[in-house]
Every structure is written in structure tokens, then in C-alpha cells.
Amino acid sequence: MKLIRLSGHALQNLQFRGVTEAEIIETIQSKEWTQAGGGWLECRKNFPFGKDWNGKIYTTKQVRPIFVDEEKEIVVVTVYAYYF
Prior knowledge:
globular; single chain; 84 residues; 54% strand; alpha+beta
């Protein structure tokens, strides 16, 4: 597997979205990639959560990285998190 590097934008949004770099890497390495538009790729993985996020308890966190598969590395452009 290629090196997975997070862009500055992705790194800045980790805490805001409640996602870890390890979750992003695990998602990219373990889930099927699909087209996200604009030449970007995406994938999604559900993680057990069972914690408070912004004043509400959620059982599941879904991590959705948006990335580019370059010749020598995978660059994560941004990441989204969904709580349910």
C-alpha cells in the first residue's frame, strides 16, 4: 500500500470533525474506493462510537475521506464524519 498523506486542510479539520488519522488510514486501506467527482476518490467505514458528540450520544461514527491516488502516495484532501 502507498503512503497515505493528509493535506493541510485535512489535518486542520481532524479535531473539528472528530476523526483520527488512524481511522482515515484504516478506512482507505480496508474499504472499496468509489469516484467522488472532480477526479477524487472516496470510501466509507463505520466505527463503533457510543460517545457524546456535540451534546448527543451516537452509537456509530462513519468516516468518509476524500482523496487522490497519485503515483507515489495517496493524498487525503478532506474528510467527513457522520454520526448516527
